[in-house]
Amino acid sequence: MFTGLVRGLAEVISVTPDGPGVTITIDRAGLEDDSDLGASIALNGCCLTVVANYDDRVDFQAGEETLSRTNLGQLKAGDRVNVEPSLRAGDPLGGHYVTGHIDALGTVDRRDDDSDWSKFWFRVPQSLTRQMASKGSVTVDGVSLTLVDVEEERFSVALIPHTLQATTLGGRQPGDRVNIETDVLAKYVERQLSGRPGA
Hints:
Blueprint: E1 8-18, E2 21-27, E3 40-43, E4 46-53, E5 57-62, H1 64-69, E6 80-85, E7 104-114, E8 117-123, H2 126-129, E9 137-140, E10 143-150, E11 154-159, H3 161-166, E12 177-182, H4 184-194
Antiparallel strand pairs: 1-2, 1-6, 2-5, 3-4, 3-6, 4-5, 7-8, 7-12, 8-11, 9-10, 9-12, 10-11
């Protein structure tokens, strides 16, 4: 479980073929106390397990499913990713409950900059916007954000200068693919309202 409060940006050192998947190696800076073997860490909002750690880097493995359904499949050496260690009992919950299970890839549809601030529109499948409401929560590339506008196939968020500087979102441009996770509570509400088991 995560909160969507990104710890920082880590540089991708390498992406190495590994069976049907890859091993993703990132810079360990900022994760020294949270990257023990077997630890869960979210990269761009996607929960991965630490499979090896060294003084200056950390290894994760990502399979075909993860690579095809998230933007981790587009990573290359030199890219930066949002990192967040998993929530510990007693930690403050400053964002919202985030599972680290990506629902779908979204696309940056529009970016309106106003000095150091920005409003972003993201295009997503309509099945996801049914789980969104203005002033509710959404996670984009692992960042907990407040929804502003919600339309049938897209939504908007307003980003403050700190978020633009401290996360990958500052570098996102129209056409870029981003990982989307809707609020887990909204998923349960939608399922109950649909009246369909397993919906």
